[in-house]
Amino acid sequence: MKRQDFTTTILVDQTPKQAFDAINNVRGWWSGEIEGPTDKLGEEFTYRYKEFHNSKQKLTELIPNKKIVWLVTESSINFVKDKNEWTNTKIIFDISKKEDKTQIRFTHEGLIPPCECFDACSNAWTGLITDNLRRLISSIRSGNQDFKTVILVDQTPQEAFDAINNVRGWWSENIVGSTDKLESEFDYHYKDAHRCKIKIIELIPEQKVVWLVMDNYFNFIKDKNEWKDTRIIFEIDKKDAQTEVRFTHKGLVPDYECFDVCNEAWSNYINNSLRSLIATGKGSPTLMDGGEFDTKWVEKRGFQ
């Protein structure tokens, strides 16, 4: 008899790499609380949706731009008799090129009609893949390589807006100046490696925050000003019962020497620290390093 594993397929205009990257940004499309890395082979991450569902996934296969496989090592679904129905099942994303589009074939291997949770889980997966994941991938404009990431939270747009403006609560305690007033400026530094001056140029409650990087200094690359004149953008939208935060560092592109380091740093700060601050009231910013911001550097660069 043919297996009846749950499966669904979507087509998008973006490249296989863009689809692969979006799938690995699990916090951007899977509703609920996620802890742990979601994009490293052999690693595990936990998922929790309120009191209804907890599970642990291990990344057992990660073929860039082609395939992603998670093994569910633990599960607890509290609305069915067998709370372990997901345990030892596999969640599979097959990515392939279809003419000028990219196809993502999603399969939850082991999620079959005899499972008591099948109807609820298949409906949930359908929405998550055909709506949330498709929307996340489609938000990536072809040819636009600015760094982007997206998170979904259960809190309101106002709570997300307030958390974003509490920059010391999710990015770094090493900040001098106001971070929540239009036209205000603040200085950031990380040890001797990175310093920048940021101006808040757009502040629309519950909708949008935009920062302009007025000046920048990196001590580990040739062009020490790479962030200068770039914009850091937070867009907030209501998505059904949740809130979506779309983060874009406009101008931070792969051609930058700092791109890989900054990509990894922003991914952690947004997907983990900011998300946690919004959801729980506690982020994981870089802690105060005990040093003071170099005011001479600010004066030397022409900012008083």
Task: Outline the structure in words.
With 304 residues, the protein is an alpha+beta fold. The chain folds into 2 domains: 6-138, Alpha-D-Glucose-1,6-Bisphosphate, Chain A, domain 4 (2-Layer Sandwich), CATH 3.30.530.20; 147-300, Alpha-D-Glucose-1,6-Bisphosphate, Chain A, domain 4, CATH 3.30.530.20. Helices cover 22% and strands 37% of the residues. It contains 5 helices and 14 strands. Strands 1-7-6-5-4-3-2 form a 7-stranded antiparallel beta sheet. A 7-stranded antiparallel beta sheet has the order 8-14-13-12-11-10-9. Strand 6 (90-98) and strand 7 form a beta hairpin. It is globular. Residues 291-304 have low confidence and may be disordered.
Report strand %.
35-45%
The largest sheet, given as strand count, sense and whether it forms a barrel, is: 7 strands, antiparallel
Shape: globular
Q: Which fold name fills CATH's third level, the topology of the largest domain? A: Alpha-D-Glucose-1,6-Bisphosphate, Chain A, domain 4
- Please give the count of helices: 5
- Assembly form of the protein: single chain
- Strand/helix succession: EHEEEEEEHEHEEEEEEHH
Low-confidence stretches: 291-304
Give the beta-strand count.
14
Quick description:
With 304 residues, this protein is α+β, with helices and mostly antiparallel strands.
Task: Outline the fold blueprint.
Blueprint: E1 6-12, H1 16-24, E2 33-35, E3 44-49, E4 53-63, E5 67-77, E6 90-98, E7 101-109, H2 118-138, E8 147-153, H3 157-165, E9 175-177, E10 185-190, E11 194-204, E12 208-218, E13 231-239, E14 242-250, H4 259-280, H5 295-300
Antiparallel strand pairs: 1-7, 2-3, 3-4, 4-5, 5-6, 6-7, 8-14, 9-10, 10-11, 11-12, 12-13, 13-14
